[in-house]
Amino acid sequence: xxxxxxxxxxxxxxxxxxxxxxxxxxxxxxxxxxxxxxxxxxxxxxxxxxxxxxxxxxxxxxxxxxxxxxxxxxxxxxxxxxxxxxxxxxxxxxxxxxxxxxxxxxxxxxxxxxxxxxxxxxxxxxxxxxxxxxxxxxxxxxxxxxxxxxxxxxxxxxxxxxxxxxxxxxxxxxxxxxxxxxxxxxxxxxxxx
Length: 193
Known about the structure:
The protein has 193 residues and is an alpha+beta fold.
């Protein structure tokens, strides 16, 4: 159950096998069925979650019922509402499973205890945070400056798995375009190949 997590850790830092074994008890394994919620808007985010298997999405609902997809999380990715997780305030987001999923949940208390027991994990999480900040900045700049075609092309090139595993209307929401625009872009791309 920890294969993806250990792979993720070893991509960022060098952690001996005995240290990897020491972190296992801090995580809570959980299975989620397709369409089942991990977090609902208004609830406090009690876990930061690592995806061992499956696909999840984080999204907000607006007054007209429109979904705005904030993040997809496939194997090897972390997902959660960090603001709610760190402050204990209610979340503005929903997180649900797009596929059956196997997850590793980490509470704030378990996270602190793990960092005390295995200090090298602090560097792992710092590197994750840095990468997340860079990705968020790039996404913000892309959403403000790139055309719909450029945003879609960037997503296809960076995350081809998402295109294969996530419904098109959710991809459109993530890119901030209509499903009709995405359909037109995909049609244009298929005729130019």
